[in-house]
Amino acid sequence: MTLTPIDWIIIAVYMLGCTVAGLWMQRYVRNVADFAVAGREMEVSLGVASLAATEVGIVTVMYTAQMGFEHGLAGAVPGILTATAMLVVGITGFVIVPLRNAGVMTIPELFENRFGKRVRWLAGMVIIIGGVLNMGVFLRAGGDFLLNITGMDSDQTFTLSFLGMTREVGYLEIIMTGLLAIVLVYTVLGGMLSVLITDYLQFLVMGLGIVVTSVLVVWNIGGLDFLGGLDKVHRDGAAYRDKQEKPLEEKWNKEVAAVRQSQDPKAAEELSQRQRREYGQSLQARATELTGQGVLVDVGKKGEPAKAATMKQPFDPVQSHGLAWVVWQAITGLAVVTTWQTTIARVLAARDAQTAKRVYRGAWFYWVGRWCLPGLWGAAAFLYFLNQGGLPEGLSSLTAMPRYLGHLLRPITGFLGLMIAAMLAAEMSTDSGYLLTWATVIYNDLINPCLRRPMSERARLLTVRLLVLAIGVFLVFWGLWYNPPGSVWDYLVVTGNIYLASLFALLVGALYWPGANRWGAMAAIILGAAGPIAFLVINGVAGRELVPAAVSGLAAFGFAFAGLIIGSLVGRAYGRGNADPAPAAAKTEETRP
Amino acid sequence: MNDPLAWFWTAMIATSIGWYSFLLFYLGIKGGFDILRMIRVFSGQKNQDGRDGPPGS
Fold first, then answer.
1. Is the ipTM, as predicted for this complex, more than 0.85?
2. Which CATH fold topology does A5-227+309-591 show?
3. What's the 3-state SS for A2-32?
4. How many CB pairs under 8 A join A and B?
């Protein structure tokens, strides 16, 4: 731990100010509408600040930097695509205007009016599965950042003695559980009102930290030399892959195929693992020498063989990622700005549809910086460790950036404290916004439609607060032990696609296609969710990325739209598929505008 | 560097730093006023509720 007293004071002042402000707002919460959508009293500037703060968490900074580390500046292309989508939606009002005018509190609530309560319930379930799984990596990524920027390893532990029992406890688990506990306290009590106020403070602290750090990184990497450096390491790394890794992989594949034919698949799999383990060991032995060839040896995850990390094409997204991946990101970007519940929550909390459009027009460019600036930090970290003779033991493409920033900021008193406060702000605003959003969906779309009689206002409020708490507890257990295979960004997009694909198709159908009906809606939800869930299960069982994320993501959108169209046409042909009437308890009159 | 895409990304990074700096001041001031207005609205509603009876009744 390398923090000075001034760093600690900056962090303490921020944490105290934020917690007090969050708790202060709970006095104004009177009902679920105040709690979930701040009584629809949010104005444009506060909306932009809140949206920006919620959509930038530590996990955002970590995965965008990881993309920068692996793909250079081209890693930021999802930011450009999403920003463009947000600008277009902000100008045209596509989806968000009819959605806000419907006066609903969540997206599934809109579906009930069109497709019936079963579709609302199923859509709510898909949102929860996708949303909560998506949030599952937030805590670990946040802990990775906080520990590595202070020079500690992610798996560092201390011994805790209590009532004669001793136990090894990880710093990461303790820090992130404590941070989540603070967020839970003010979110459970103040709901969206507390979230808006704390988001505003967090926007200021986070923005200051990001600007100061980016200026220092630009100063440190030396402008034009940096562009030339990225280009050179890409060429060196590509030459290494072509001359050394590709022939080796071809040789391995032939050996494994021969064993598979003569013996059994298990022996072939063992041979494949042994080949990769031995290659990993040889990489580790040559780590310093390989930096001269544009290669960093990544020994990140425990139990996995070391890998050669090289810089892909650092400027051209299509060459760097492939066309299918870029197309998938473009579609996902449009789906995110029209469907992602935490983003849409700001549309639904806006005073009217015009305010919602203005929030989008004000926030769109924020997405560019959200990707470009941490992406720059990640790319700079690659060059930094290449010049330092390789990645230190235990660092990976994910954790290299915070360690680099630690080296960069530590010599300037107070800057490390500012950056940590900024990232705590980023994490807290994201966690609070997401917790509130998913709890609101569970209450509004899973519990409420099943009730025969409406709950009292007090019981509703208590239920949503308990749901926020329950999701928080779930996250502590799921989020701190699960390690996704592949890049964090791909995990986030695939889990997000569980509901993005199906609900995007459904939302467009519900708002713009009179022919859409209940059969089509059900087919879209099930088929859209099936692809990403299959991806998670197959890759989880295999322990590596067998199905490429882009294939899974594009298939999800294709299946969802095909399901909507074919299901609706079949439903119409059989004279079925019209919405079933909703019971009185499912209505949420208090949320109508 | 003659790659136009390298210059495109450089422009995006420079504009992002400038835009974030501007938003920090602009939204810092305007967002603060939005919060004050929102608190006034909720304070008024709370006082109204206090005269009318407990919320949700």
1. no
2. Sodium/glucose cotransporter (1.20.1730)
3. CCCHHHHHHHHHHHHHHHHHHHHHHHHCCCH
4. 122
